[in-house]
Amino acid sequence: MAFHALDYYGIDELFTDEERLVRDTVRAFVSDRILPTVGKHWAAGTFPHELIPAFGKLGLLGASLIGYGCPGTTPTAYGLICQELERGDSGIRSFCSVQSSLVMFPIWAFGSEEQKQRYLPGMAAGTLLGCFGLTEPDFGSNPSGMLTTATRTDRGYVLSGTKRWITNGSIAHVALVWAKLDGIVRGFLVPTDRPGFVARDIPGKWSLRASVTSELILEEVHVGEDALLPGVQGLKGPLSCLSQARFGICFGAMGAAMACYDEALSYAKDRVQFSRPIAGYQLVQRKLADMVTEITKGQLLCLRMGRLKEAGKLTPQQISLSKRNNVYWAREIARDARDILGANGVTDEYQCGRHMLNLESVYTYEGTHDIHTLVIGQDVTGLAAFDP
Ligand SMILES: Cc1cc2nc3c(=O)[nH]c(=O)nc-3n(C[C@H](O)[C@H](O)[C@H](O)COP(=O)(O)OP(=O)(O)OC[C@H]3O[C@@H](n4cnc5c(N)ncnc54)[C@H](O)[C@@H]3O)c2cc1C
Question: Stretch 3-9: mean pLDDT, rounded?
């Protein structure tokens, strides 16, 4: 089915030529290379490794970073890449978000020159893969409680602890592990072939099935002095990476929503019940009108966020607002699309069910919906309600 991208408010004309070109290139790539096979990968619970070289060639990895083999696009173009990739599948967008925003960005922003030279060109090409280990079995929304530790040795550091729910964990060559050194959170670039490092995939996921999610166990893993990210200390490190990734997720969620809306509209126009296509019934039109409204609002949030980011004015709280809103509505839209498709909506012949299930993870990761509510609440009241 050809994809018709919703642009109800003519937002297209507010992007630069370069941004439109990047978006259209990725849109065509998703139609040609991702959509034909992603359903099979999702059903099998496998990640499409075969696409990684193409991600590198197209400049999708570390797209908005400057130098070290990265294309240096505008933040908005990076967002549009995420939008298009997530139109394909949230798991594919997750792969690129983790590589770009959660591993390449901190190396670029906080790494030594030697770390940048060692990792970034290979990561941009897709020959070196990374993962981001922050969450632990007992510390998700509250990462400050993490138990993973780093201790100084004669030649570097030794790391011990467990990280869970780590995207790309078992396929990564390098893990950015956040651990406490003398009680302060620091980032360590840990080669995953080190003795004591084990990555085990988490079985039984019914969401993000075309994405690798793993547990990382570090049992006295020795790394050199050069593993420490020198440029950042404290939770500010991981939180600033998450801001980068969430920015892309806001766009990505709209990509998934646009795919679901397009599928639902096309289906509703074709599907005849009683006297006419179901698109002609008021209750169905109400659902479609809600989808158009919420996608348009979400697209406008993204555009404005992009321009604020380019001007250096975007706050983490503004990103929280968009993440909370856009993922919430994408999840609702996927459910309504599934409903419009009736029984066909529960089969893998259509995409909306896959998007619906994927979006459950997106709702929870990168700060849950509730946690973003509290971030906004704290911002407007000046009172933190995380731990009353
Ligand atoms: C598929 C997938 C991939 C992931 N990839 C990564 C990754 O690459 N790297 C990584 O580090 N992590 C990753 N995560 C982990 C993710 O970031 C966490 O799941 C998330 O932060 C939530 O933590 P939790 O699951 O422990 O839930 P919890 O923190 O236990 O929260 C459970 C519920 O309690 C609510 N809650 C918690 N605290 C409060 C409060 N103070 N007030 C009100 N409600 C509250 C939450 O909103 C939620 O509804 C991934 C998760 C998934 C599902």
Answer: 98
Whole-prediction pTM:
0.98
Q: Which atom of ligand 1 is nearest to the CA of 385?
A: 41
Q: Whose CA is nearest to atom 27 of ligand 1?
A: 140
For residue 313, give every residue at least 6 positions away whose Cβ sits within 8 Å of its Cβ, in sequence order, or none: none
Q: Is the CB of 162 under 6 A from ligand 1?
A: no
Residue 8 has pLDDT above 90, yes or no: yes
Q: What is the mean pLDDT of residues 142-148?
A: 97
> 263-280 burial by CB neighbour count: b if 16+ within 10 A, else e?
bbbebbeebeeeeeebbe
Beta-bridge mates of residue 179 = 186
Distance 165 CA to ligand 1 centre (A): 9
CA distances from 362 to 2, 20, 152, 157, 373 (A): 26, 25, 36, 34, 15
Q: Cα separation of 215 and 356, whole Å?
A: 24
21, 84, 245, 319 from 377: Cα distances, Å: 38, 31, 21, 14
Query: What is the mean pLDDT of the segment spanning 106-134?
Result: 98
Residue-level pLDDT at 275: 96
Q: Which residues are catalytic?
A: 366
Distance 365 CA to ligand 1 centre (A): 6
- Atom 22 (ligand 1) nearest CA: 140
- State the Cα–Cα distance between residues 114 and 313, nearest whole angstrom: 30
Confidence of residue 388 (pLDDT cuts 50, 70, 90): confident
